[in-house]
Amino acid sequence: MKLDPEERWRLIDRVARETVEYGAERSTIGSVLAELTVKPLTGIPFAFAVLYGFWGFFDAFAGFFTDGFFVPLFDDHWLPWIQEAFPLKGSWLYYVLVGDPEAVNSFEALGMLTSGFFVAIGVVLPAIVAFYLVITILEDSGYMPRLAVLVDTVLHKIGLHGFAVVPMILSLGCNVPGVASTRTLETKKQRFMIMILLSVFIPCGAQLGVMLSLIPEYFGYIMIYLVTGFFVFGWVLNKLLPGRSPEIITDVPPLRTPTIANVSRKLWVKVKGFFTNAIPFVLLGVGLVNLLYLGGVISWIANSLEPLFTGWFGIPKETVAPLIAGFLRKDLAVAQLSAIDMSGFQLITSVVIISIYFPCIATFSMIIKEGRKSGGVIRVLGGGLLTLVTVVFLWGGLLHLIGILLGVT
Amino acid sequence: MAILLMGHPNVGKSAVFNRLTGANITESNYPGTTVDFTEGYTYIDGKEYKVIDVPGTFSTDPKDEAEKVALDILAEHEDPIVLVVIDSTKIERGLYLAFEIMERGYKVMIALNMWDDAEKHDLSIDVDQLEEILGVPVVPTVAISGKGISTLVENVPTASRVDIERLREKITSL
Amino acid sequence: MDYGEKGVIKEIDRDLKDQLLGRGIREGKTIRMDTKQPINGPVVITIDRSTTSLGFNLAKDIFVEVENGDTSNGPS
Fold it and tell me: Which residues make Cβ contacts (< 8 Å) with residue B92, sequence separation at least 6?
C-alpha cells in the first residue's frame, strides 16, 4: 500500500517528534568555516586560495621528485648504463627499446626503456601522486559541492550548472572518472556537453605534469587558450543543442577532516591503477611510434599531411609522430613534442592541438560506455566527432592566425 | 539472498559496504561519489549474502541517471533485504525514503549512520522507541570507524516487511 | 528574504514540490537562508540540519513567511 507524500510526511513528523530531540545548534570552527566557504564575499577569495595552494603544492611536490631525484637517476645512471649494456647496437630492436645511443638525456633518447620509463615514472608518477592527493582531500573534506555553488552562476551562462565542476575537477586527474561522473547531471544535453567539453579541453593530470616539468614557460598560455575554448564552445553548444538546462539542486554536506586512512587508501588505488593501466600504454606508445618510424609510415603520413600542418596550423610535419602516440597517452605525446625542434609559438600550438584533437583511448572507451546512457552511442559519438573536428580546425587554426597577427610565426 | 544498501547521496553507503564486505571502494564527502553499483559478498551465520552498494537516491522517483540505476537495481532483485542508510543528523528525510521503500513491500532495516555527528550536534534519537514504532531493526552506526557494524550484521536476518496500514494507525495513536 | 533570516515555508510551486519532497524541503518547515550568490546565482538554505543549494529560479518558487511577519518569495 502506498501513502501520498503529504501523509507520509505527516507520519514521519509525528515519529520524529516522539523519538528525536534537537539540542541547541552550536557554532563550531567547522560550521563557521563551512558557511564562509559558500558566502560569495569570503568564498570566492577562498576558492582562489585553494586553487593557488593546489598549484603551489603540485609544483613543489612534482618538482622535488622529478628534478631532484628522477632526472639525475635516469640521466646519470640508468641511461648511460643501458646504452652500453644493451646488446645489438645498430639493430632495429636497439632502436625501439633504447633509442639514440648518443643521447645524453633520457628524454631525447626516445626508446621504450629510456624515454618511456623516464616519462612514465620520472615525470608522470610524481605528478599523478600530487594531483590525486589534492583531489582526494578536496573530495573528502566536502569542499566540492561548495565550489559547485560558487561557480554555478558562471557555468549557467553556458547551460551547465555548478555541479558540472565535479567532473571538471576529476578530469584534471584523469578524464576517465571525469566522464563517468557526468551521470549525476540531470539532462542528456548537460551530460553530452560536459562529456565532450572536458574530453576535448581539459588536460589530464599526467599531461599537466609533463607540461609543467618540460615546458613550464608556455604552460600558462596553453591553459588560458584551452579554458577559453571550453567556455566559447560551451556557449556555442548550449545555443545549438536542444534540451533543458535545469537549475542546480544539491546538498551541501558539512566540512570534515579527511582521514589519513581513507586518503592513503584512495591514493594507493590510483597509483596501483597507474602502474597496471598507464605505464604499459606509455611503453606501448613509444614502441609503436618507433616501429612506425622504422617502417617509413610516419614520414609517409607526415609528408601527406604537410600542407594541413604547415599551412593551416603552422606547425612542422614532424609533429605527426607525437599525434599518433597521443591516441594512447597524451602525456607521452607532449613529451615527444617538446623534443622536436620548433619555435615557442609552434610548440604552444602543437600542444594545444595534441590536447584537443582526440581523446586518449581510455577516455574514448569511457565515452562510448556512457554514451549509451546519454542518448545513444551513435548520437553521442556522431555529435562528439562533429564537435571535435570543428573545434580542431577552428580553434587550432585560430591560434595560427593569432600567431600571424602577433608576428611570432 | 541480496542486501541492497540504499539511501540519500553522501550518507556513507560506500563506507558501510566496505565494512560489510571488506572491499575497497571509493568513499568521498560529496553527493554522487557512487554512480554505478558495486557488488560484494558477506557471510552471516554461514549463509552467503550478496551485498550491493546502490547509487544514492532521494526518492523512488528518479531525477538523474545515477538514481535510475538505483531503482533498476531495486526492481531487478527478487525479494531483497533493503538496508536503508540514513544520515542521523538528517533523520526525517532519511525516513521519507525508508517509508517509500517499506510501502513497496520490501524487507527493510535501517542504519542510522554518522551517529557520532548526531552526538556532536546534540541530537538524541531514541533508537529503541523508533525500532518499536517502525517494526524493523534500527542500528546506530559510524561506518568510517566500524562502530555498530557487528550489530548491524546480527540484525540482518530480522529485517522485516511492514504493514503500512497498521503502522499508520500506530503512529496516529501515539 | 535576506541572508541570515529565518522563515516558515508557506507554499511551494507544484512542479518543484515533487523534486524537493525527498530532500525534506516542505511546507510548514522553518527555513534559514544561509547565502545567496550575486547575479541571480544559487541560494543556500538550511532546513532541520540539512543544507541544500538551489538555483535562483527554483528558489523563487518557494514562498516563505519571514519571521518578522512579511511574506516574501525566495530570494527577493
Answer: A12, A13, A16, A20, C24, C48
Task: Say if domain B2-172 classifies as CATH 3.40.50.300.
Answer: yes
Angle at which helix A205-214 crosses helix A216-240, to 10 degrees, equals 140
Inter-chain contact A19–B174, Cβ cutoff 8 Å? no
Q: Are A193 and A236 in contact (CB under 8 A)?
A: no
Residue numbers of C between 41 and 70 with CB closer than 8 Å to B = 48-50
Percentage of chain B beyond pLDDT 70 is 96
A10, part of any domain: no
Q: What HEC string does A200-257 produce?
A: HHCCCHHHHHHHHHHCHHHHHHHHHHHHHHHHHHHHHHHHHCCCCCCCCEEECCCCCC
C22–B61 CB contact, under 8 Å: yes
The number of CA neighbours under 13 Å toward the Cβ of A139 is 25
Q: Are the CB atoms for B148 and B110 separated by under 8 Å? A: no
In the numeric block, the cell 554512480 is attached to B35
Helix (H) or strand (E) holding B6: strand B2-7
Contact C41, A153 (CB under 8 A): yes
- Are B126 and A1 inside 8 Å of each other by CB? no
Contact criterion met (CB below 8 Å) for A132 and A126: no
Where are chain B's structural domains? 2-172
Q: Quick check: C50 and A25 CB within 8 A? A: no
Overall domain count for chain A: 1
Question: Shortest CA distance to B137 belongs to which of B109, B111, B162?
Answer: B109
CA–CA distance, B27 with B34 (Å, rounded to integer): 8
Q: CB distance from B38 to chain C under 8 Å?
A: no
What ipTM is given for this predicted complex? 0.89
In chain A, residues with a C-beta closer than 8 Å to the C-beta of C49 are 22, 25
> Pick from A82, A118, A94, A112: which is nearest to A283 by CA?
A112
Is C35 in contact with C43 (CB distance < 8 Å)? yes
A316-338 residue pLDDT tens: 888 888 888 888 888 888 888 88
Does B92 touch chain C if contact means CB atoms closer than 8 Å? yes
Residue-wise pLDDT tens digits, B73-87:
888 888 899 999 999
- B90 close to C (CB below 8 A): yes
Domain span at A346: 40-406
Task: Using CA coordinates, name the residue in chain C closest to B57.
Answer: C22
Q: Which residues of chain A have pLDDT under 50?
A: none
As given in the structure block, the three cell numbers for residue A370 are 556512457
Tell the residue number behind the cell numbers 620548433, with chain if given: A342
User: CB A250 to CB C20 under 8 A?
Assistant: no
Chain B residue nearest residue A250, CA to CA: B31
Domains in chain C, start-ordered, CATH in brackets? 6-68 (2.30.30.90)
User: What secondary structure, in 3-state letters, does A277-314 show?
Assistant: HHHHHHHHHHHHHHHHHHCCHHHHHHHHHHHHHHHHHC
Task: Choose among B76, B69, B40, B33: nearest CA to B54.
Answer: B69
Per-residue pLDDT at C41: 81
Contact B54, B81 (CB under 8 A): no
